[in-house]
Amino acid sequence: MPSRKFADGEVVMGRWPGSVLYYEVQVTSYDDVAHLYTVKYKDGTELALKESDIRSQSSFKHRKSQSSSSSPSRRSSSRSRSRSRSPGRPAKGRRRSASQSREHKEDKKKTIQETSVALPVLVLFKPSENNTKRYNGEPESTEKNASNTEKSCIILEQKLKPDLEIKRVLEQYSLRSRKDDKKKEEIYSEKKTFVAVKPIEKVSTKTKEMEFGGRIGTFMLMLVLPATVLYLLLMCKQEDPSLLNFPSLPALETLWDWRVFGVILLWFFLQAAFYLLPIGKVVEGLPLSSGRRLQYRINGFYAFILTAAAIGVLLYFELELHYLYDHLVQFAVSAAAFSLALSIYLYVRSLKAPEEELAPGGNSGYFIYDFFTGHELNPRIGSFDLKYFCELRPGLIGWVVINLAMLLAEMKIHNLSVPSLSMILVNSFQLLYVVDALWNEEAVLTTMDITHDGFGFMLAFGDLVWVPFVYSLQAFYLVGHPTTITWPVAAAIAVLNCIGYYIFRSANSQKNNFRRNPADPKLANLKFIPTATGKGLLVTGWWGFVRHPNYLGDIIMALAWSLPCGFNHILPYFYVIYFICLLVHREARDEHHCKQKYGLAWERYCQRVPYRIFPYIY
């Protein structure tokens, strides 16, 4: 555990986040866990800074005096000796003059060496209100900025180029022979080589805090999640899907069908082929811990259009799509088996991945935990990003296809010429959600699934099994348990869904646009709290209303998807209950992550925005 360098109450120079400016600050406290100093600027701003961003005042004064007084004295003494020489002196005098000349040359060379290896002088500014405004994005005139810089600048940052400076002086005064010059160049080249190959200390990326109950919790989840999917689907098949009426377990041989497994493989590789098509723009993701940015092709919406065209052709040739309804349990089992096989492949290949490519949350050293959460952050086969592909393509588009199959099955089983109003609402609401996700595909690059979580069993099972087979639960329920609703009720449910969608989409758009370009003129009316990471925390708009407005919109939409199923059974509302529990867990994880990342700035944000998801409730 490293000891702290600066004491509480000590006045030091702190670097302002996102700039090279240093201000006079006072240390107020120190976080032993995050190793961050809480400092207070003269204008009252409090930020959490790393120790590397703080310098003592004495070190700045020493550098200033050293840079301003070391070389002039030597230059003045050498000039005085130079004036005392006369070309009319005798030979002895000339010999003395040559000796003095050699001393003069040595002094000049020594002076240049001392100047060239001096540490770079840092820019110091006195804190002022104008500087703070400029950081927050408020414009200032050029003349005002120039005057403030002249008044507040103490030392100008500069770094001399030692090789060029020494070479210029040696050529001008011919201080050494060519042999000595060559020897000097070899010495400097050796120094350069030594600096270039100096090893850099590696920072450990081991996972220190485990989620989901650690090793035991993740092992139980790997058993409970597939069992839950199977239980829900078997419940929907019963005439009385009440919780007390536990379904009978089918024979194991009836749960597996190689033909169904072949369809799952065909579906996965068809979507992979659409992903590889050279259509759609290529964008860069957020910077990784190494500073590198990965490239992603944005063509999910095109893949959806091509899939819809393919399904339309199959329906034209009278393919019985309701086959999905008759074998939905078998499809779920096959998808679970495929996700397990994919997870094993992902973990095996992650064992050879470099340390910097491992997920920060899935590098605990425990097999079960890392297998579940994902050991590698961005597993790729060439340019094919497996996690990014599975996040939206096979499961999300498959969800729409299953809903369509349920709609056709309802019409066939109940001899309907048109689908029921309840089925139309469920299909329409969830289709809107999927199309929105694919249309705004680029926004997924800023989510924790992409930036923080590894790709393991949790995301593989969630993307390929949980999303398509649990999210389509309402449509599956309505096939066996039709529910009649009136048009006024349908209109009220539609309004509720629109409200949830508006909150969800506008909140996510604000966040994504601010993350990518905080200086966007469209966001000029938004206020934020600066943090030590250089990023800002929005305190106006939706993010000033509650801390996670996108989760609020999600829950409202989930309720609107379940209401068309009526109130005869609680089974259709499992999705709402699950979604609330999931988002509360995610919210708690986000709170912990943001507190570690932003420190005091997050505490100020929580004071400014006290409600997490539900205003005036939670």
From TrEMBL:
Record InterPro entries: ERG24_DHCR-like, Lamin-B_rcpt_of_tudor, Sterol_reductase_CS, Tudor
Stored CDD domains: Tudor_LBR
Listed Pfam families: ERG4_ERG24 (PF01222), LBR_tudor (PF09465)
Main location: cytoplasm
Pathway where it operates: Steroid biosynthesis; cholesterol biosynthesis
Gene3D superfamilies referenced in this protein's UniProt entry, alphabetically: 1.20.120.1630, 2.30.30.140
UniProt entry tagged with the keyword Phosphoprotein: yes
GO biological process, one term: cholesterol biosynthetic process
Membrane topology: Multi-pass membrane protein
Compositional bias annotation for Basic and acidic residues: 101-112, 131-143
Composition-biased stretches (Basic residues): 76-97
Record key words, sorted: Cholesterol biosynthesis, Cholesterol metabolism, Cytoplasm, DNA-binding, Endoplasmic reticulum, Lipid biosynthesis, Lipid metabolism, Membrane, Nucleus, Oxidoreductase, Phosphoprotein, Receptor, Steroid biosynthesis, Steroid metabolism, Sterol biosynthesis, Sterol metabolism, Transmembrane, Transmembrane helix
Protein known as: Delta(14)-sterol reductase LBR
Native species: Cardinalis cardinalis
Gene name linked to the record: Lbr
